[in-house]
Each structure stands twice: as structure tokens, then as C-alpha cells.
Amino acid sequence: MKYILMMNTMRAGESVPKWPTKDLQAHIAFMLNLNKSLRESGELVSAEGLAFPDQARLVRAGKDGAPITDGVFPESKEFLAGFWIVQVDTPERAYTIAARASAAPGPGGAPLNMPIEVRQVMSGPPPEML
Amino acid sequence: MKYILMMTGTKADFDWYATWPKRDLQAQLAFMHSFTKELKDSGVLVATEGLAFPNEAKIVRAAADGSPITDGVFPESKEFLAGYWIVDVETPDQAYQLAARVSAGPGPKDRGNQPIEVRPVMSGPPPEML
Hints:
The complex is a heterodimer. By secondary structure, chain A is α+β, with helices and mostly antiparallel strands.
């Protein structure tokens, strides 16, 4: 089963956290190391990091189908900061990996214990829709 | 440059989607399928995934001992990721054009055009974090 682990941790206006450089570096090193260990265990399907919210646009088609872009979002909007897709046998394994990501180090090296949203990724549309 | 095109919706949006008449669902799925095929054929598709409905979404946090604490309660306003495409294109405008196509995808008559969030995908952490 494939699961997606999402960090919906950014808010509008957020950029690189104002942490001491060594804490930022430790955070990134932790993430790169997590990716490496998931790759080595054969569980990593993909991992992506998204640009900061200032580069997000909401796009709608106008009447003529041309894109209308808007860069204003509600303050409450959760921006996806990045995600992993993992191939695992049970949801519990996905939750265990999510907990590892959750405990990524923050300022002073303390675990962030950030929320990670976990959901199954579908191999195709539900059969009842076909 | 890589861009992600994200479709999101609240739980209410997903519930409504599940009640679409079968022929509307089928028309929408056929549209998605041919859109994805076109992206693949033109060489711009990097990845695409559809996520499970939010009913089984969990928020996972690490406890003090690192074990996962899962929670399945979300605010009603929460926007859940329904699916995404990652495309590799030359300019943001090309990504917005593609997003407008998805925005204008078929649905029930009163549906209107859907907002699609578009954001650059990073090839790695910002250099100042390494």
C-alpha cells in the first residue's frame, strides 16, 4: 500500500525559519538522512519539497479557459511544505515513519513533533466510479 | 522548472463529489485520464497521484519517546489534498495554463471552475540551509 506523508506546516508569508544556521543545517541533515534510510529500505516512492508560500498561486480558468491567477490566501490556509510517498505493508508502518519525520530537530536540536498528515495514495479511481 | 498543480477540497467538497451522478463522475475521470495522457505524451509529466478520501486521514505526531500518536479529527475548514500533478515546464505561465485546463474540467452543471494551487517544486533544500 502506498501512503503519502504530508507536512502541512507552512502559513502565508512564511519563509526560511529564523533559526541559528547550525539548527537549520541539523534539520536538513536529518531530513536527507531520513530520505536515505527510506530509500535503502526500499520504502521510498518519492519525496518532494515545495517552494515557500510566497510563490503559490491559485489558478482558475476564466470563461474563455485562460488562467486567472491569484496570490492571496486566507491566513488560516495550511501550505504543503513537502511530502513523502512510501510503499509499506501496513498503515502502522506509515505512522511510524511519520512519527520519525514529526520528531525532526528544530531550534536547539529539540524535536519539533510537528503534525504529519498521513493518507493512502490510490492506484486508480475507486471501482464504483468507473 | 518543476511545478506542482494541487487539487484540494474540504470534507464537504469530497462528500458532495461522492454524490455526483455516475455519468458526471465518468466524464470527469475520462477528462483526468486524457489530460494526464497528454502531459505524458508531451513529455512534461513528472508524477501524478490521487489520494484516498479524507475519511481515513490521520495526523501523526511523535510522542516524547518517538512513537506515533495518531489523531483523525480535523477542523471542518481544512483543505485536503485530493490529488496532484508535477510537471516540468519552461515558465510559470505554462504551469498556469495547464492548471486552468484542470480548473475547467467537467462536472455537474452548477460546479463552476475549480481553484488549483500551483507552486514550484524545489530540487533540493535552499543552499543557505546546507
